[in-house]
Design brief:
Rossmann fold; 350 residues; seven-stranded parallel sheet; alpha/beta; 13 helices; two-stranded parallel ribbon; globular
């Protein structure tokens, strides 16, 4: 990633009020980009986006990617050079409860965005962020590579696989003959300060600390490719920059840790050590909604083609997460603290 590249770049970012979106908005702001964010209002209280206010250099538009008129107006006003699409219904269990809403947001929201970008001549790069769960997972223990078949047994995973197909269809049908480069980014499970979503391990852990209750784990032995939120975000920025300059850049890349995936219960144990708490847990008895036991990504292509690589092991990622939440509990200025973490991350491995 070249900081100078992003200075004054017009970036249209969907999902900017979410956990990952707020972190990326802050990073782009620090890089000097001109960001227009388009998203629903923050869905949790507290929310990362709200804690980072005020946003002096962000044009924030509250809207739904399923609403074409408001989305079209925001795109027209921003005249984007780079589009990063992160708006989504991003949770597995809520997708079981509301499958049609999940498909509507993740699939048709993406189709709306790509369709509205067809006449936008200023757009040079469109990066659609999907998920590590887009692959047809038979739990063989092998890390997934970008050429593996797509699939999805739960509505969330299937909706993100459909998102991949929609993106590829628009890329070949409408953008292949012009200078706009369209690609997808697939990232592993992200952790970090500022996530309060329901049914996610790290937010559930800190909620249990505040309430003095046991944390309930649905699948304590399930393994996932855990990584700090700044890891895939740095990959997205590097990916968009390379797409802007190199038309031969792969049109789909994985962004996951190089370390082996870690079981849920091991993450809880490490987080307890990092945060200084001894936290009890119990097995969640509601197993109506199944999830895969194992998932790992192979990020070799991103490492070789972009020069990107993870800078943190999982212990460091959990330590940074714990420090962020400790700073929040101590009523520190979380905009200042979060900027400090971005700056510290940029120095890692430098």
């Amino acid at each position: 990633m070249t900081p100078e590249f992003w200075r004054n770049k017009r970036v249209f970012l969907t999902g900017h009020t979410g956990f990952k979106g707020a972190w990326l908005s802050l990073w782009l702001e620090q890089l000097g980009a001109k960001v227009t964010g388009y998203s629903l209002a923050p869905s949790t209280s507290p929310a990362m986006f709200s804690l980072l206010e005020p946003w002096p250099d962000l044009d924030s538009v509250i809207g739904d990617v399923r609403h074409r008129e408001s989305l079209a107006a925001a795109i027209a006003t921003s005249e984007p050079e780079i589009v990063i699409h992160m708006a989504a219904q991003a949770l597995v269990r809520p997708s079981y409860e509301d499958p049609t809403g999940t498909f509507s947001t993740n699939a048709m929201g993406t189709a709306n965005l790509l369709d509205l970008l067809r006449p936008v001549s200023t757009a040079r790069v469109v990066l659609v962020v999907t998920s590590d769960k887009v692959y047809d997972n038979h739990e063989t223990g092998r890390r997934f590579v970008e050429s593996d078949p797509l699939g999805g047994t739960d509505p969330y995973s299937a909706s993100k696989a459909v998102q991949e197909l929609i993106t590829a269809s628009y890329a070949s049908s409408y953008f292949a003959s012009r200078s706009t480069r369209v690609a997808t980014a697939r990232a592993g499970n992200v952790i970090g300060g500022g996530d309060w979503a329901a049914d996610r391990l790290i937010p559930d852990y800190f909620r249990s600390i505040r309430t003095g209750t046991e944390i309930q784990l649905r699948y304590p032995n399930a393994t996932r490719p855990w990584q700090h939120v700044l890891e895939p975000l740095s990959g997205y920025l590097a990916y968009a920059e390379r797409l802007h300059s190199d038309g031969d850049t792969p049109k789909a890349l994985n962004f996951g840790p190089t370390d082996p995936s870690l079981a849920v219960i091991d993450v809880v144990s490490k987080l307890a050590a990092a945060s200084g708490h001894t936290q009890k847990w119990s097995r969640h008895t509601d197993d109506r909604w199944p999830e895969h036991d194992a998932l790992e990504l192979d990020s070799t292509a991103a490492i070789e083609r972009l020069g990107w690589r993870p800078r943190m092991d999982v212990d460091t990622a959990l330590e940074w997460t714990a420090k962020w939440h400790q700073a929040h509990e101590a009523a520190q200025d979380m905009r200042v603290f979060s900027i400090q973490q971005i700056e510290a991350y940029s120095r890692l491995g430098a």
